[in-house]
Amino acid sequence: MSTAKIIYSGELRTEMTHIKSGNTVITDAPTDNHGKGAAFSPTDLLSASLVSCMITIIGIKASNAGLTLGKISADMTKVMADSPRRVSEIKIYIQIEDLGYSEKEKDMILRAAINCPVAKSLHADINQQVEIHYV
């Protein structure tokens, strides 16, 4: 069974539908590549998916370890390269509410993030800069 159905809507836009849930996501080409920049670009989604995966895996590992997580948020910056046009770097800044985690627990959280499935699926040429700050 398919995971998603993707339809080209014209004008460099797609609509992706997740088959199981029916949720949809629209992509638009970025303004620096002939688009309107009116929605996430495919490379924005790639980069944001990395961060989402990291936070999800942190949650799974914490739950498995019986660790309560505080609030988590993240900022991501995607850096593009030319020749060929591609994502060259993804800068990730994760903030986690500090509930008094030990150094061992912080190390587990970092390892969970940098070893998430999306991180391991991306080409090694993509520099993944990950910072985790406890606030």
Question: Main attributes?
Answer:
135 residues; 6 strands; GMP Synthetase, Chain A, domain 3; 3 helices; alpha+beta; three-stranded mixed beta sheet; three-stranded antiparallel beta sheet
In short:
The protein is of the alpha+beta class and 135 residues long. Helices cover 30% and strands 35% of the residues.
Write up this protein.
The protein is built from 3 helices and 6 strands. The mean pLDDT is 97. The protein has helices at residues 42-64, 103-114, 117-121; strands at 4-10, 13-18, 24-28, 72-81, 86-96, 127-134. By secondary structure, it is α+β, with helices and mostly antiparallel strands. The strands form 2 sheets. Strands 1-2-3 form a 3-stranded antiparallel sheet, with no helix packed on it. A 3-stranded mixed sheet has the order 4-5-6, covered by helices on one side.
Termini separation (Å)? Answer: 43 Å
CATH topology of the largest domain: GMP Synthetase, Chain A, domain 3
- Radius of gyration over C-alpha positions, nearest whole angstrom: 17 Å
What pattern of helices and strands is seen along the backbone? EEEHEEHHE
Fold blueprint:
Blueprint: E1 4-10, E2 13-18, E3 24-28, H1 42-64, E4 72-81, E5 86-96, H2 103-114, H3 117-121, E6 127-134
Parallel strand pairs: 5-6
Antiparallel strand pairs: 1-2, 2-3, 4-5
Helix pairs in contact: 1-2
